[in-house]
Amino acid sequence: MKIGDKLDIINSPSEFLAKKGEQEFQQMIDEKQISKVDFFYLPFGSALQIDTSDEDKGIDFKKDIRLVIPKKDQAWTFDQWAEKITELYQENGWVMIAYYMSCVFRDIIFKENHGWFPLLYFFGRPRSGKSTAARSVYYMFGEPPQKDGINLSSGSTDVAMGRYMGAIANVPGLFNEYKNHIKEKTKEVMKGWADGSGRIQGTRSATGTMVVVPKSGALICGQELPTSEAALMSRMIPLEFDEKNRPSKAIFDEFKSIESSGIFTMITCQ
């Protein structure tokens, strides 16, 4: 919501009216202080009441989703973005575009597909461009939580990853460094991302519990196909990357500079 020169992002119209008051809001409209009102649906934002819920204090997921208002001469259309993705990633780009569109409507597809939504797996040798490709999809939703995503091999607990996937909706999680020797428990958690199966955890009350359920797709990068776990492999769409037939570094760098600015989030909002 733009009031004068100030841009306010709110979770819902009712939240704004409760804070400002309906009469004051109408007065601002009459005085033309509000030049434009847009509503963008960020499912996890209002559902979890981020920064106010006891269960989610200390988890700063707000920074994972950044809406950017581009200048008129910097705006991109979906067609322009899709054409560039195809130029950069060839046939893999077709799948990336389709998966991006599916993630936007993951909640609907999951229900219609009998409780199943696949994971997109980017694999290849080091410096083959797999992580760059995964980020190209994620930048349509905002800035990655970490440069290359959450590390599956070290430093990330299964509980934390479960909470992360339960705190976002219709926005894919970004993960890196899959290896066949990761913990079996981690593989079970990953299978749950496709199946929508979660876990029960306690709350601060003496008898309270809550169910944490994944509500998003996942972009996963690694150097190995998950051949040690057939059930996990069956839940993935694998995309292989190599250094052949890639555009010049200058073209890649130019595109990466544009996507890292965050302006592609506007395509998703539209």
Describe the structure.
With 270 residues, the protein is of the alpha/beta class. A 5-stranded parallel β-sheet has the order 5-6-9-4-10, with helices on both faces. The chain has helices at residues 13-20, 22-30, 43-48, 78-104, 106-112, 130-138, 158-166, 184-195, 230-233, 249-260, 265-269; strands at 2-3, 6-7, 34-36, 119-124, 150-151, 173-178, 199-202, 209-212, 218-222, 236-241. Helix 4 (78-104) crosses helix 6 and helix 7 runs parallel beside helix 8 (184-195). The chain has 2 domains: 1-39, no CATH class; 72-269, 3-Layer(aba) Sandwich (Rossmann fold), CATH 3.40.50. The protein is globular and about 65 Å long. The model is unreliable at 43-63 (pLDDT under 50). Helix content is 40%, strand content 15%. The chain starts with a strand and ends with a helix. It contains 11 helices and 10 strands. Strand 7 (199-202) and strand 8 form a beta hairpin.
Helix content: 40-55%
Low-confidence stretches: 43-63
Structural class from helices and strands? alpha/beta
Shape: globular
Written as H for each helix and E for each strand, in order along the chain, the element string is: EEHHEHHHEHEHEHEEEHEHH
User: Regarding CATH, which class of the largest domain?
Assistant: Alpha Beta
CATH topology of the largest domain: Rossmann fold
